[in-house]
What does this fold into?
Amino acid sequence: MEFINGFCERDSEKIKVKAGPGQLEKLILIRHAESSNSVQGLTDGWTDSGLTDFGKKQAKLTSRWLRNFLRNVPFQFYCSDLKRAKETAGIIGKLIDQSLTPHQALRELNNGTAANKTKEEAESLYLPPTEPRMDWIAYPEGESWRMMYKRVSDFMNYINDDDSETALIVSHHSTIVCIIHWWLELPEELLSKVYYDIDSCSISQLRINSWGVKTITTLNDTGHMAKLKE
It folds into this structure.
């Protein structure tokens, strides 16, 4: 399967005709560890930078928690193809002995020409907010929240028909917010009004409970990294 600009090109028709409840019963969402752009004053979005040394420590502690939590549990492993997410997922995959599948569809919100720029440089490129906010594109050649939600939800609909009941995804703040909205089947318009704190290497768990209701079991949990705060 190949994603071009975040969308599945070869399987686009398959995505459009999906029906039924799908197979996923549990999602484990990990935000990438601390990245070098965040300490160098660069923008986020599609800026492509690796992890800091502290970020690598975060990823290793997250790996240990996942190794115990997912022991003897079959699951699919996906990540964004941006370096900070792929490097985080690589550290996790090595410890839990699981191969991963990177996808462009799981990237952060596209910040267009502001990518790889300093925050000061990005200010000169910033486009004032327009209404409706879901369709506002903050930087030239970027994407709106509606465009992002479309590519993320298309991808989630695709993997929802995988045989595995559990999926582990390493991605980005805004991407995880979109996945949570997709999981809860919230109106996409709420993306411009409802947000969540998602810290570096935090763990959020979504599942279908015993009553068949989609729930958020944990959100933005960083307890597994308590040693780094000592």
About this structure: The radius of gyration is 17 Å. The beta strands are 3-4, 7-8, 26-31, 76-80, 101-103, 166-171, 203-208, 214-221. Residues 21-171+179-214 form a domain with the Rossmann fold fold (CATH 3.40.50.1240). Residues 53-69 form the longest helix (17 residues).
